[in-house]
Each structure stands twice: as C-alpha cells, then as structure tokens.
Amino acid sequence: MNAPRWFKIVAVVALLWNLLGCFAFASDLLLTPEDVAKLPAGQQALYAARAGWAVAATAVAVIAGALGCLGLLLGRKWAFPVLLLSLVGILVQDYGLFVLADGAALAGPVAVVMQGIVLAVGVALVLLARKAMARGWLG
Description:
This protein is an all-alpha fold and 139 residues long.
C-alpha cells in the first residue's frame, strides 16, 4: 500500500531536521579550543564535562535519525529499528548531559527545552515508523 502524501511530507521534514542535527554535531566536533573559550562560562563547563560515550551517543542519535528518516522516505521497514536506535542515542546523550553533567544548571533552560524537543521528535518518529509498518506503508 502506498503511503499517504502527508507521510512523505513529514518524512522529508524529519530528514531535514536530522540533517540539521548532523550539521550541528559536526560543527560541535570542529570547535577549536579558541572557539570553546569564546562560549559563555556555563557552556564551557558543559563542554568540558561531556563524557566521550555521551558524544558517541549523540553521533548515533543524529546519524541514525537521518538514516531512519531516509528509510521512511524510501518506504523501508528497516527505518523502524534505525529510528529506535536513534531514540536510544538521544536517551543516552540526555543521561550524560542532564544527569551526570547537570546540563540544566550549566547550559540553562534553553538547552533543556531544546533537548526536550529533540526527545519528543525522536519518540514521534519511532511511533510514526511503527504506525507506517502496521499500515503497510513500509515494505
């Protein structure tokens, strides 16, 4: 069964969202010590407190998110487990950011809201992929 038009539109928007995440992650990796020194003190502290595994989880989250959305666009069933992997990456990243590094105190409420949106989108994409499989839109 062919997916409805709205599904394809949502998949394109979600892919663009995740590609922005990939760009932001790549930009973060390319920050020089001089760039980090220009950040506000709280962001510098958060940057220094990040664990390597949390950074790796971010990579998994954004790359799997982009690939999973591509899978949705292509109508592939593998989109579901890949988007689920992305959601796990988001959860691990958030654990490192907000539980271990106290990112809410270091980066402020904007970071909390933004990560809340990221988490909500991740959950929504997993639910969308599950619905698409159940409806036969993914083959």
